[in-house]
Amino acid sequence: MSKYTEDDLKIELETKEYEYGFYTDIESDTFPNGLSEDIVRALSLKKEEPQWMTDWRLEAYRAWVQMTEPEWANVHYVKPDFQAISYYSAPLKKAKYESLDEVDPELLETFKKLGISIDEQKMLSGVAVDIVMDSVSVATTFKKTLAEKGIIFCSISEAIKEHPELVQKYLGSVVPQRDNFYAALNAAVFSDGSFCYIPKGVRCPMELSTYFRINQAGTGQFERTLVVADEGSYVSYLEGCTAPSRDENQLHAAVVELIALDDAEIKYSTVQNWFPGNKEGKGGVYNFVTKRGICEKNAKISWTQVETGSAVTWKYPSCILKGDNSVGEFYSIAVTNNFQQADTGTKMIHLGKNTRSTIISKGISAGKSQNSYRGLVQIGSRADNARNFSQCDSLLMGNNCGAHTFPYIESKNTSAKIEHEATTSKIGEDQVFYCNQRGIPTEKAIALIVNGFSKEVLNKLPMEFAVEAQKLLEISLEGSVG
Amino acid sequence: MLSIKNLHARVEDKDILRGINLEVKAGEVHAIMGPNGSGKSTLSSVIAGNENYEVTDGNIYLEGEDISEFAPEERAHKGVFLSFQYPVEIPGVSVTNFMRTAINESRKANGLEEMPANEMLKLIREKSELLEIDRKFLSRSLNEGFSGGEKKRNEIFQMAMLEPKLAILDETDSGLDIDALRIVANGVNKLRSENNAVIVITHYQRLLDYIVPDFVHVLYNGKIVKSGGKELAYELEEKGYDWIRSEN
Question: Which residues form the ABC transporter domain (chain B) (predicted)?
Answer without folding.
Answer: 2-246
